[in-house]
Design a protein that fits this description.
heterodimer, A: alpha/beta, D-Maltodextrin-Binding Protein, domain 2, eleven-stranded mixed sheet, 11 strands, globular, B: MetI-like fold
Chain lengths: 333, 305
């Protein structure tokens, strides 16, 4: 057993989102962790098929703990793919903002960071004026809007917020009001449903679209590292996601994995993470850079009132139907 | 005839039969690795796919429940408001792409066949080189070329052919161009391969006997090219019915094919539904393939390809 404090064997392996997250974990978090604990940390990137990799592992998962979307967490929970979290090993969980803590309806995942959706636009091509999702239907806007097409969640929640018939996204949970969401979306200047970030940025740089709904932190990173001048604006009321970390069933490093989650919630680690990537951090004690504070709700009260964090459990029963409707809707454009 | 002659004749027949039998056994032995390869690479995965299509979905919305039997996957296809539309669009797209591929491929192959020397080499190299390039790279290049800010629009604007930019991606035009980019080399080579068996003197003779060039092509070249066109068409249809990359990279959400829908269902962890859809599409493609081969056999043209 190499360097694991809490039992188990070998190196601790953490799976996080491919792309910027993996880079931050490798370049910033891994050195901090290894220096502080003397343990070895292996960071792997994943985007799709996280659950499939655990299911197919025959009880010996390819990573000890993993990030996952709210939907990944829910479906994994149903299939018993996560170990219950032993909060005694994660005292820093007490610092987590309550809005994020309530995002999961299980005790098998711990929030570490979160992101919010905004308008990303080609700043060389347009002067952007909108400040809410509702503006897309009430203002006379001349734009080619790109929306995420691979799954219904982000677009439909945005449609619900813009519909404004019920508080925030409540239309989504009412069968009778779901039609209103799609009617609202129909009024928007949609030109494309994109499949992944590369599709969005290529479409924007090639003049197919000029505005896209995309994550604030990733848009900002793209602006800093790419050759396109990207403007980013987060509406006051928007949707977001929480990066939960969960311990994979069958991990031989369960104790170390929980201690690693505790490490991720340390004030200095959260602050270092926030410096490298403009996500909101789950801990109340984290310090965020100005660029994040300007667009991302940080305080719990702001989050609670203005951000809809996706909760798959609330739409699980109607998810298949909603996705079919969304797919059908996309073919209208 | 003496008894000795009779015995010797019988021995010869027995020896010949044994030799033939040995030869057949050796042929069978040689076939075993190929049959094993077919079994492992084609039959087993298809059998597994078929099995998954008859499994029950996991209770929690997960992939599937192992060991269960159910028609849920096929029932989903019938109940879904999307699958029917996607299937119809895919088949229509497959037919249109096939017709265009065969028409353009035949013209191209004819041009290559009639050309000589360097021109022929360049025409054939153009087709073959295209097949050496990775699909995604090829289509991504096409996307950059065809986009509003791309080289095609720039050229058309600069030469005064257009006075505004054309949208050639994110629509069905882009998808068709992308798909033709993929399948055209196969149809060209299929048609070209049968044209190489045609004596060019026959075309000259038709011209000498007063046939116009168009009539000579219609009555001499095309009948000979039909087996190649059929094979090229079958390949183009099989590729196009299963199109994934071109609609994804060059199309919009309206150009949704069965393959994209399968991916969508996998993303929803509906493995039985995805497998059922894949089985239905594979069956349609196999039926078209079987009909094509049967037609070629009846026509006696299979040996020409």
């Amino acid at each position: 057993m190499a360097g694991c404090l809490g039992g188990g064997s070998g190196t601790l392996t953490v799976s996080t989102w491919s792309g910027t997250n993996v880079e931050v974990f490798r370049n910033t978090i891994k050195p901090m962790y290894e220096e502080q604990t003397g343990n070895d940390l292996k960071v792997v990137g994943n985007w799709n098929n996280i659950l499939g990799k655990i299911r197919q592992s025959g009880g010996d998962p390819p990573f000890d703990l993993t990030v996952g979307s709210n939907r990944d967490h829910y479906l994994g929970d149903q299939d018993d793919l996560w170990e219950p979290i032993r909060y005694d090993n994660i005292p820093n969980a007490d610092t987590v903002k309550s809005t994020l803590d309530n995002n999961l309806e299980s005790d098998r995942g711990v929030p570490v960071a979160y992101g919010v959706m905004g308008y990303a636009y080609n700043a060389d091509e347009m002067d952007f004026q909108l400040s809410s999702w509702r503006d897309l239907v009430t203002q006379d806007v001349d734009m080619n809007l790109a929306l995420p097409g691979s799954y219904f969640f982000n677009t439909v929640i945005m449609g619900a917020i813009a519909t404004d018939e019920a508080p925030m996204e409540q239309e989504l949970y009412s069968d009778s009001q779901r039609d209103l969401i799609f009617e609202t979306l129909r009024e928007m200047p949609i030109s494309k449903f994109y499949e992944g970030a590369q599709d969005l940025w290529t479409s924007m740089s090639q003049g197919v679209t000029d505005v896209g709904q995309y994550f604030y932190a990733y848009s900002r990173k793209r602006d800093q590292t790419g050759d396109m001048n990207i403007g980013i604006q987060v509406p006051d009321r928007t949707m977001g996601y929480v990066d939960h970390y969960q311990v994979a069933r069958g991990s031989s490093n369960r104790q170390s994995a929980e201690e690693f989650i505790n490490f991720l919630l340390q004030e200095d680690v959260q602050t270092a993470y926030a410096e490298e990537f403009n996500l909101g951090m789950a801990s109340k004690e984290a310090t965020h850079p100005e660029a994040t504070r300007a667009e991302v709700p940080i305080e719990n009260a702001e989050l609670e009132g203005n951000t809809v964090f996706k909760q798959y459990s609330q739409v699980a029963e109607s998810a298949s139907n909603l996705n079919d409707r969304f797919t059908e809707f996309q073919t209208e454009f | 005839m003496s008894d000795v002659d009779t015995a010797s004749g019988t021995d010869r027949v027995r020896a010949a039969l044994q030799a033939a039998s040995g030869s057949i056994s050796r042929t069978r032995l040689l076939l075993i690795p190929l049959l094993l390869f077919d079994l492992l690479v084609f039959v087993v995965p298809m059998g597994y796919l078929l099995r998954i299509s008859f499994a029950k979905r996991s209770v929690g919305g997960g992939a599937l429940q192992k060991g269960t039997w159910s028609f849920d996957g096929y029932q989903y296809l019938l109940d879904s408001s999307v699958v029917g539309t996607v299937f119809r669009w895919t088949l229509l797209f497959g037919v249109v792409a096939t017709l265009l591929a065969v028409a353009i491929g035949t013209l191209y192959a004819y041009a290559a066949w009639r050309a000589s020397g360097t021109t022929r080499t360049i025409l054939l190299a153009g087709v073959v080189m295209s097949m050496f390039t990775t699909l995604v790279v090829k289509l991504f290049a096409a996307r950059l070329m065809l986009s509003p800010e791309g080289a095609v629009n720039d050229t058309l604007l600069a030469t005064g052919v257009l006075d505004g930019r054309l949208l050639l991606v994110n629509n069905e035009i882009g998808v068709l161009i992308g798909q033709l980019y993929i399948v055209l080399p196969y149809t060209v080579l299929a048609v070209y391969s049968v044209l190489t068996g045609l004596d060019e003197g026959l075309v000259e003779a038709a011209n000498d006997l007063g046939a116009t060039p168009v009539r000579a092509i219609r009555e001499v070249v095309l009948p000979h090219a039909v087996p190649g066109m059929a094979v090229g068409g079958i390949i183009a249809f099989a590729w196009s019915a299963g199109a994934f990359a071109a609609p994804l990279l060059l199309g919009s959400a309206s150009e949704r094919t069965v393959a994209i829908e399968v991916q969508n269902l996998l993303g929803q962890f509906n493995y039985p539904g995805a497998a059922a859809l894949a089985v239905v599409l594979t069956t349609v493609v196999l039926v078209v393939l079987a009909l094509g081969i049967a037609w070629l056999r009846r026509r006696g043209g299979l040996r020409d390809v």
